[in-house]
Amino acid sequence: MNATKPLSSQNDLTVTHVLAKLLERLEYSALPVGPEQYRSVVTHLVDALSNVAPGNALGALLDTHPAAAELYENINYQYAGLCRSPLDQSLSAEQQARQAIARAMRQPTKGSTNGQS
Q1: pLDDT band at 88 (very low <50, low <70, confident <90, very high)
Q2: pLDDT of 59-79, one tens digit each?
Q3: CA 52 → CA 66, 89, 92, distances in Å?
């Protein structure tokens, strides 16, 4: 009979840290990354993050690994929204989007006669 090793403690972030670091390397790689490799790392990291208890250690890991933090927000969006995104950055993006929409609404499209014949 094969003895199985019990699952690691929820507070042990070693595997999660390695996967987060690997995801960062893939995200910012100058060389093309195969989709299967990327998907595999993301799938394993999602699984690892689901087994980690929230707390300061997880927060510190996510603070130093932006790609993992974004993934964490995405898998927990239904509970907390974009809880890790800086508010100033989010607000600025929303304001820019509103301005772009307003400009687009003011500009007539090419060939448009605004209902005049």
Answers
A1: low
A2: 899 999 999 998 988 887 666
A3: 17, 27, 32
